Amino acid sequence: xxxxxxxxxxxxxxxxxxxxxxxxxxxxxxxxxxxxxxxxxxxxxxxxxxxxxxxxxxxxxxxxxxxxxxxxxxxxxxxxxxxxxxxxxxxxxxxxxxx
Length: 99
Description:
4-stranded mixed sheet; mainly beta; 8 strands; 4-stranded antiparallel sheet; single chain; 0% helix
C-alpha cells in the first residue's frame, strides 16, 4: 500500500450542506478542498506547513462555519508495518466547526 506525506484536517460537527476547507499559510497560496456536506476525507498531499489557519466556509452563503490557528503535529506513518518499507509523514489539525 502506498503512503503520501501531507496534512489532514478533521472537522468536529461538519456542516450538512456543501462547504470548503481552506488552509492558509502566510506567504503561500491557499490550499482548498470542497465537500458536498457531512464528513469528508480532507487531505492535502505533499503539503507540510509549520503554522496554518484552517477555515471552514459554507459554499452557498460564504459564511465561516469554523476557524482555527494551529501548529500541525507531524508523525511517521507505516501503512505496511515497520518491516515493510519507508514511512511517510502525516500531520493533522482538528477544527471545531459549527454555529
